[in-house]
Amino acid sequence: MTVLLFTLEPNCLHIQEKEQQTLLSEQILPFSDFEFPKTAQILTTQIKELYPTVEGAIFNTITPEFYLVNKQVSLLNESLENFTKQFSELLNIPILLASEQSQETDLITVLKEKADYLAWNLDYFGYTPGKEEYSVESLLTIGNGFMGLRGTTPEMTLSNDHYPATYIAGLYNEESSEIAGQIVENEDFVNSPNNQSIHIKVSGTDEWLNLKNSILHYLHRNLDLKTGLFTSHMIIEDSYRHQLKITAHKIVNMAKMNNYSIKYSIQPLNFSKEITVKATTDGSVYNFNVERYRNLTAKHFHITQLLAEKNNTVIEIETTQSKIKVQQISTMIGDFFDPAAIKNTIQKEKIEQTLTFSAEKNNLYTLEKHIQVTASIAEQSWGNPSLPATSFDLEFAESKRAWESLWKKSDIQLTGDMMSQKLLRIHTYHLLVSASPFNNNELDVSVTARGLHGEAYRGHIFWDEIFILPFYILHFPETAKQLLMYRYNRLDKAKENARESGYEGAMYPWQSGLDGSEDTQKLHLNPLNGEWGEDHSILQRHVSLAIAYNIWMYWNNSGDDLFIKEYGAEMLLEIANFWRSAATFDETTNRYYIDKVMGPDEFHEAYPDSTESGLKNNAYTNLMVVWLFEELETILSLLNTQEQAKLFNKTEITAENLEKMNDIRKHLSIEVNEDGIIAQYEGYFDLKEIDWEQAKEQYGNIYRMDRILKAEGQSPDDYKVSKQADTLMLFYNLNKEKIDEILEELGYDLPTDYLEKNLLYYLNRTSHGSTLSRIVHAQLAEEVAFHDLSWKLYQEALYSDYQDIQGGTTAEGIHTGVMAATIYVTLTTYAGIDIKKNYLTIKPNLPKNWSDITFNFDHKGIHYSVTVSKNSVQICPSKKTTVIVKDQSYQLTADENTIITY
């Protein structure tokens, strides 16, 4: 096997190409003023050109002189481990440290093991306080669907530098704040008390060790995606030159919703002295994660109870407005102290537990802290919580088994692309942290746009569900059903929202939180000019269509007719009735129109120079309304006459209403030009064009072109500029054949290549201000055989949170929508499964560098195990069934592998 050996010298990278012990070639890649990671990116680009087929490498060493010459590079943040990680990820190959080579094991095996490790682990070396650190913490979050803990070490406390937080699903509270001279109400996702805080102090000093005032020699954080175990290794030195190695392990028990545990080990490296440990139960915390929210009211609870006895503490809080109670009970045990030795100090908002012990140089001292978290919104566990933890190892073993069962159902295995494999697992992991089959059945919640990872969007539930739910529909249908019940339980509030706005039926809110009220803010801060402006995003009524789509997707994939009869049909009928009431007949065109809406684009809120917000005949909205009216007919046919009568009586929807829906379905208006471009909304073609090249040259990052224009005193309403897919979202939701049928029924005749034309037209006018934008366009590009474009956009979407491509948004929580969408597109676009039809259909489109892909999913009550390769599909169903592969029908036998070649 041919490998590369890297040696990093002061002004060059020395590369040797070897096969076993034979030197094949050498290269010197010079550089000056090494800047990390920029120079590493330049070097790896050169390496790819020189060695395009390399499959592995060894990072031999970094010479000491390298750090002496390149003063801006630090041993902490630019260590050998970090260089190895960066080069490995940029080259998309496993790279070994020289120390990882084994004389007993052949190099091919060691590299394969390293690639497997990298695909299951997140590693961060060093420490960069501030927004970059916040992003790392989001990506290192651990959780179980009920709670999420950001990936901080126990020494980190709430500050601009780092942000520990404990989030509980459904924990919302509303508070008023004064903004721009007016009082506004905002409902927030609440940061609850922090029980993770542990600090130490060496005898004879007056300082508690922390990352700001101490010398940090080494910090490595690891997240094992397979098991949900967070580990940190730190070597730290106080101002008196006491050096300590501190190791922390942290888990949230996936099998027990209420439990999380910390194992904390202390090793003095150059001294023997007394050490004092302080563990804090901290109720002084507040919401601080999102910088632009920091001038809003940040404290959302008051403490109702603080108790401490021996090694136990209790803190109970109640949110100020929503009146939700949260209780945390902690127990601290260890191998070097007696519980009676702990000194408890109860302060106004926190409890400090301290213990002092004599520490010997190089000895290891380990304590465990077990925390049980309950919340009154989870009524069953509030009164009957999980059994309290007694051992970290036992909790971890139990949680590990639960994670194993989740991965068995949801893991996607790729051959030929290490980084795509890693990123798909990162995305799957974070979705399971955000909602889990183990812990969500008791909860009345859905998946927030930022998971249980941060406070952006105030932890609200958006239309992102249209991207998120398919992950659960395919892998965990019972959890998908529970997430849909969150919407059913707020149906009455959606009907109230509709009445208040002058409509009938159910109008779900753009932003939903605790009770289903409209929680969209009225003002929005533009960070480019620091000004608050009106926010009209409440007009994105298409969120109700996303809910309808997910109901249909769940039913179509699961065959759960009982859900439809008990809940789904009622929601669909009420949503359809809302759209019926929103449509108006225009006698001059003999068509219906829908106005006062915004599309998925989000940049366009009104017409140029208009004093009223809202747009007319948004194509995505209108065509999805037609789709809904069509599918409603099928859904209602599942109910017998008695069940239909009961439903119509409950909803007060009449035969005339249904007749009107049928008429709208055939006569709803969209605008189409002579080239077959479907206007994003009526009047879109009259808008001005943007000089994109000039904008890129002037601003660099133009993702949020709306903010740029507003900061210049202009408006995106005047321009053909989109944040993300709008009209094109239709083709993400529906098969092109279905859209063709809808257009034909409406009487619109478009050219055969209209999809390609629309894709190119809107792609040239889209700034990709949302992480979701790229993945939608990637799917469409593959559909029209623009393979290179599809792959480029797919890769950008895959990396969007991992590399924080939007410049700081990952700091405020991961993006559950794009994470779920990348998984969905991997399975439906590249592996080629289609779950929207009666029979499972497979049309593979594997990217050129993927050898094969293996995955599991459920479809219509059948569990499938599938491997798709370049020339074959291997498929094993749990029941006898028929599948269609490459337009040919095949009969499959239960629990038998069938290989279909093509």
TrEMBL record:
Keywords, comma-separated and alphabetical: Glycosyltransferase, Hydrolase, Transferase
Residue numbers binding substrate: W463, D464, K723, Q724
Annotated InterPro entries: 6-hairpin_glycosidase_sf (IPR008928), 6hp_glycosidase-like_sf (IPR012341), Gal_mutarotase_sf_dom (IPR011013), GH65_N (IPR037018), Glyco_hydro_65_C (IPR005194), Glyco_hydro_65_M (IPR005195), Glyco_hydro_65_N (IPR005196), Malt_Pase/Glycosyl_Hdrlase (IPR017045)
An annotated Gene Ontology molecular function: glycosyltransferase activity
Residue numbers annotated as active site: E602
SUPFAM superfamilies: Galactose mutarotase-like, Six-hairpin glycosidases
Protein name (record): Glycosyl hydrolase
Naturally occurring in which organism (per UniProt): Enterococcus caccae ATCC BAA-1240
